[in-house]
Design a protein that fits this description.
This protein is mostly beta strands and 396 residues long. It has helices at 26-31, 391-394; strands at 48-54, 67-74, 80-86, 96-101, 109-114, 123-131, 144-150, 158-165, 173-181, 193-201, 204-211, 220-226, 236-239, 248-256, 262-269, 275-281, 292-294, 308-312, 320-324, 331-334, 343-346, 357-360, 367-372, 384-390. Helices cover 3% and strands 40% of the residues. Strand 18 (308-312) and strand 19 (320-324) form a beta hairpin. The two termini are 30 Å apart. This is Glycoside hydrolase family 93 protein.
Length: 396
């Protein structure tokens, strides 16, 4: 859920600032994009935490909160890609930066930008990266998708658009628009949409999101499906707070479990303090009828706000569900396939953040990647940083 946002861009009128990249600039990167991407290592040579990927220049008119809402994935090649909300001075319109790491997350360089090619508003909020595990329509397995929420600077509209990269993240094309909503402020009665998340299931691609367009609910969770990435089904409800208009379920994130269930996590704002809930079920097209659970840890903690969840094969048959929440730097771990009484909390060395994202390294189920980009405004010190943490060293 977003807090109010100050719009300082435009007041500052500073010269355009090129986003600084730590090791190689964008023009150089783009010039070499046709050369094969050589992954040095799919895992880092050492564990680490709070390593800065990007910190905006302090004197260049970046809008508070500067950066926010980071996402990171590992491609089949072993390369990592990261993106985030990027509050660079406007004009030009804001975009989602695409940073790449070829050494498991220790070093990063900007290789591309997902710019708004259709609305004239900017790619402003809530980017999500996803690599297709199978062909969908004319998009072959391996294509990288970036879904995000495009809004104009005055926030009067919201629109979840999907872009695709067929070259590992260097260049991007607009694909289609999933849904459109109204003014982008988290106020009941307004009609925005928020926070897309992508999953593939039975040859369909599903986009889940938070939805304020239904007059019966302050906010609910919905999804739409496609078989070709061009045409989208009507929205289907995933979570609604029946009889309670004030309820605002938000920020859906899903992981597949080895017993063919899916865990669907979300924050329950409005009527439950944004505490994190989850649903477990075999059909990701029908979370509406799946039983709902609170998260309560072994220490009695009820984590809140902006969850992220992943599954690792660490620990045998059930593997390990790992959950992050905004209220703490801890992770919450469940080795019993999501059983309600089995959430154990562990400290991590990566600072808490608004919607910190998780990733399990493909070649090491013990290794958890975390990326964060600070806090909702006011937070003029936000930067993007990541960690690679050995779960067994934490005691998981
Ligand atoms: C796997 O999870 C199930 C369901 O909670 C539980 O009964 C079982 O003991 C777990 N197995 C292991 C090896 O932990």
């Amino acid at each position: 859920m977003k807090g109010g946002r100050l719009l300082l861009s435009g007041l500052l009128g500073l010269a355009q600032v090129v986003t600084s990249a730590p090791t190689v600039n964008l023009a150089q990167s783009l010039a070499i994009r046709d050369e094969p991407t050589k992954v040095v290592s799919s895992v880092p040579s050492t564990t680490f935490s709070d390593k800065t990927i990007f910190s905006p220049p302090t004197d260049a008119g970046w809008t508070d909160p500067r950066v926010l809402y980071a996402r990171m994935i590992q491609l089949e090649s072993g390369a990592l890609l990261a993106t985030w909300e990027n509050y660079s001075p406007e004009p030009p319109l804001v975009h989602y930066p695409i940073y790449q790491s070829l050494d498991g997350g220790l070093n990063w360089a900007e290789i591309g930008r997902v710019t708004d090619d259709v609305n004239g508003w900017g790619n402003r909020y809530q980017p999500f990266l996803y690599q297709l595990p199978q062909d969908i329509g004319d998009f072959p397995a391996g294509t990288i998708l970036c879904a995000g929420n495009s809004l104009p600077a005055d926030l009067m509209y919201t629109k979840i658009d999907v872009y695709a990269s067929r070259d590992q993240g260097f260049t991007w094309e607009f694909v289609s628009s999933v849904a459109s909503g109204g003014e982008g402020r988290p106020v009941n009665g307004l009609t925005p949409i928020w926070e897309p998340f992508i999953l593939t299931y039975k040859n369909q691609l599903i986009v889940y999101y938070a939805d304020q367009r239904d007059p019966d609910y302050g906010q609910k969770l919905s999804h739409q499906v496609t078989t070709n990435l061009l045409e989208w089904s009507d929205p289907v409800n995933d979570v609604v707070t029946v009889g309670n208009y004030e309820g605002r379920p938000g920020m859906p994130v899903i992981a597949r479990l080895p017993n063919c269930n899916y865990i669907f996590t979300y924050e329950q704002c409005g009527n439950d303090g944004c505490r994190i809930h989850y649903r477990l079920g075999p059909d990701p097209l029908d979370f509406l009828n799946a039983p709902d659970h609170p998260i309560r840890s072994d220490k009695g903690t009820r984590p809140s706000s902006s969850p992220y969840v992943v599954w690792s094969s660490l620990g045998g048959g059930n593997g390990t569900i790992i959950l992050s929440a905004a209220t703490t730097d801890k992770i919450y771990v469940n080795k019993n396939l999501g059983a309600e009484d089995s959430w154990i909390e562990f400290n991590t060395p990566q600072p808490r953040a608004y919607t910190r994202a998780l990733m399990v390294y493909r070649d090491d189920p013990n290794l958890l990647g975390i990326i964060g980009a600070g806090w909702l405004p006011p937070s003029a010190v936000n930067y993007v940083s990541n960690a690679a943490i050995d779960l067994t060293e934490l005691g998981v």
